[in-house]
Amino acid sequence: MLKHIKAIVTTLTVLAVNISAQAKDNNPDTMLITPVLPISEMVRADSVAFANRVLYAERTTIDSLLDVWLESRKEVLTDSLFNLNADWQEPEIGSKMYLPDSVYIKRLNSLTSPIPLVYNQHVKQQIQSLTTTRRTTVSLALGRSLKYFPMIEAELDAAGIPLEFRILPVIESALIPTARSRMGAMGIWQFMLATGRNYGLEITSFVDQRRDPIAATKAACRYLQDMYRIFGDWTLALAAYNCGPGNINKAIKRAGGKRDFWEIYTYLPRETRNYVPIFIAMTYAFHFHNQHDIEPQDILSPFETDTVMVNRIMHLEQISSTINIPLDVLQTLNPQYKLDIIPANEEKGYALTLPRQEVPMFLVNEQLIMSKDTTYLAQYMRTSKETGKVEFNIESTTYVVKRGDTLGGIAARHNVTVSQLMKWNNIKSTRSVIRPGQRLEIFL
Hints:
- The protein has 19 helices and ten strands.
- It is mainly alpha-helical and about 450 residues long.
- The strands form five sheets. It has a two-stranded antiparallel sheet with strand order 1-2. A two-stranded antiparallel sheet has the order 3-6. A two-stranded antiparallel ribbon has the order 4-5.
């Protein structure tokens, strides 16, 4: 009997591995799980400072505005969640989703938008892909949109940006707050680290506001405002989100000064040529999903939320173990805390999002929750030599491993334990090999 069980487990394991590998290679919907698709963006500046400098620009041409914007910027490459360069797959003939051009044209023309929803072969291919081979992608994104679109639309409206730009984070990340690209872009708007910091997002070992949908949306709005100030055209602002204003300006020059996206199309990077068509196609898919029998997958939280301010360092497990909120729920509601630690103190508080019905329970049990810090935050505890009191220290330094270094030697030199060093750097075993050049985070 035991042999039969082992054989079944082995067979299932092999099948799971094979299915997973095949899905990653062939199924575009698996990109929602492993976000690995390309996109370019520019390091984005503070919009207030940008606007002030533009006011003093001597000229109002694209060149002068771009010079102002680029003066202290550099281009950074990142990835998004849709393979904009992927070969299009022809839907099966006879499929009820395979519609005449006249139907797509009529439906797009029925939508009023400051971003021209042009219909051509490029857009047609993306529409047919999204409504056939990528139906699951659209269904999942529709489900998430029910949660995130109200907030995104409110921020876009406050910034004076067309509400149609709500589709942009869909094609960037499928609205997954913890989505991370190969290049390190993060969050629903796929900001690079330098980009996020330049737009005021806090990114440390503990906090990454790129993963905070609200904070990241505010930053994205500022960037889109900057691009519109430069080009005066929302379609070009959309394209610039993909490849940066420098590439858009080069394309304009090569096209003889033309400023229409479709007139500079052939001079743009290949990926950007696909970016606007897939934006139009996703806009179509979101408006007419019912006509294609695509329904939102129910992924909403089964509860309303509220926030409380925390003014002392806290691990999410302190809360979970006290008022019985599952840790994964807290992680989902607070994706910006990378290590499940809220690095708050008396000088700087942080917001904690909870299921609304649990807020009173949190407030009643706050002291009990706080008292568990020595259990869940032991690796950050230090005894002050001056006062003899136990303190929490989350200030860190980066140590670059040298030839001949060992975990024990590094820990001893920095007056920490090996277990702390392993915890901070996600090292699973004392037998794990550390290599010269490897960077280790050490909290002193």
